[in-house]
């Protein structure tokens, strides 16, 4: 493998917070900023797939709130604003198979930056 | 682009960093706004011309179910954009309300659609989904 650049700061903070607080059995964080009209190395658009026991007794909206809040607090502590776009898939271990690919985000329609 | 009419209310421009942002809409205003129809959507752009892929996905789902709804374009109104985020404590747009209750954003709507739960949620407020009608018509035809 070629030299991997160090994780960018926002993604690093997200991964760390989600890993330590939600103890996921699977976590996928993808930076989708290049799909949008963003500068190089932008960290504005993200998609996360989190599979965690912590979601077992939570409604869909509460799972999403837990992910949102975990990320929001971590970014606040690190001195970042909340990202422009965050897509969430929050599954319980029962709802997830390892071969399952994360969903794809819809294409950008150019509203970013407005 | 539509012409912007001169207005008595001050306008803020992003270049003017010293200007305070407009005050976010208050709770009482939003309490009313989220109940102007059984389904109310806060989005970027409007249903005819969504300005964001996630807002567009919500529009497409509503279209499939044949839902009549009120849509508010947050790009036209910064006070609304901030107000609705504060109101729901939810960081992103679009935001969907059914019967005045916040349901979620694009991801949740998509999952409710895929699981079939959206049909049930709509039924609770007296909206019969077009997808359900199509399903029932098929069943009748089989019999």
UniProtKB/TrEMBL annotation, chain A:
<dbReference type="GO" id="GO:0005739">
    <property type="term" value="C:mitochondrion"/>
</dbReference>
<dbReference type="InterPro" id="IPR050961">
    <property type="entry name" value="BolA/IbaG_stress_morph_reg"/>
</dbReference>
<comment type="similarity">
    <text>Belongs to the BolA/IbaG family.</text>
</comment>
<dbReference type="InterPro" id="IPR036065">
    <property type="entry name" value="BolA-like_sf"/>
</dbReference>
<protein>
    <submittedName>
        <fullName>GH18440</fullName>
    </submittedName>
</protein>
<dbReference type="Pfam" id="PF01722">
    <property type="entry name" value="BolA"/>
</dbReference>
<dbReference type="InterPro" id="IPR002634">
    <property type="entry name" value="BolA"/>
</dbReference>
<feature type="region of interest" description="Disordered">
    <location>
        <begin position="91"/>
        <end position="114"/>
    </location>
</feature>
Automatic annotation (TrEMBL), chain B:
<dbReference type="GO" id="GO:0051537">
    <property type="term" value="F:2 iron, 2 sulfur cluster binding"/>
</dbReference>
<keyword id="KW-0411">Iron-sulfur</keyword>
<dbReference type="GO" id="GO:0046872">
    <property type="term" value="F:metal ion binding"/>
</dbReference>
<dbReference type="InterPro" id="IPR004480">
    <property type="entry name" value="Monothiol_GRX-rel"/>
</dbReference>
<dbReference type="InterPro" id="IPR036249">
    <property type="entry name" value="Thioredoxin-like_sf"/>
</dbReference>
<dbReference type="GO" id="GO:0005759">
    <property type="term" value="C:mitochondrial matrix"/>
</dbReference>
<dbReference type="InterPro" id="IPR033658">
    <property type="entry name" value="GRX_PICOT-like"/>
</dbReference>
<keyword id="KW-0408">Iron</keyword>
<dbReference type="InterPro" id="IPR002109">
    <property type="entry name" value="Glutaredoxin"/>
</dbReference>
<feature type="domain" description="Glutaredoxin">
    <location>
        <begin position="39"/>
        <end position="103"/>
    </location>
</feature>
<protein>
    <recommendedName>
        <fullName>Glutaredoxin-related protein 5, mitochondrial</fullName>
    </recommendedName>
</protein>
<dbReference type="Pfam" id="PF00462">
    <property type="entry name" value="Glutaredoxin"/>
</dbReference>
<keyword id="KW-0479">Metal-binding</keyword>
<keyword id="KW-0676">Redox-active center</keyword>
<keyword id="KW-0001">2Fe-2S</keyword>
């Amino acid at each position: 493998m070629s030299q991997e650049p160090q994780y960018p700061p926002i993604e690093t903070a997200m991964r760390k917070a989600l890993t330590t607080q939600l103890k996921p059995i699977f976590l996928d964080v993808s930076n989708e900023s290049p799909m949008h009209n963003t500068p190089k190395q932008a960290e504005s658009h993200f998609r996360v797939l989190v599979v965690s026991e912590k979601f077992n007794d939570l409604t869909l909206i509460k799972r999403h709130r837990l992910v949102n809040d975990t990320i929001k607090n971590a970014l606040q502590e690190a001195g970042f604003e909340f990202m422009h776009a965050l897509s969430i898939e929050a599954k319980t271990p029962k709802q997830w198979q390892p071969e399952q690919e994360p969903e794809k985000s819809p294409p950008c329609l150019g509203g970013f930056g407005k | 682009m539509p012409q912007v009419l001169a207005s008595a209310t001050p306008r803020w421009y992003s270049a003017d960093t010293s200007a305070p942002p407009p005050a976010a809409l208050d709770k009482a205003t939003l309490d009313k706004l989220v109940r102007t129809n059984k389904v109310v959507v806060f989005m970027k752009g409007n249903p005819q011309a969504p300005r964001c892929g996630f807002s567009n996905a919500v529009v497409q789902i509503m279209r499939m179910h044949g839902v009549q709804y009120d849509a508010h374009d947050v790009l036209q109104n910064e006070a609304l954009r901030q107000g609705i985020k504060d109101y729901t404590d939810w960081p992103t747009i679009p935001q969907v309300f059914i019967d005045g209750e916040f349901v979620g954003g694009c991801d949740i709507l998509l999952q409710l659609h895929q699981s079939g739960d959206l049909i049930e949620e709509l039924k609770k407020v007296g909206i019969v989904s077009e997808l359900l009608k199509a399903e029932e018509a098929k069943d009748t035809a089989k019999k």
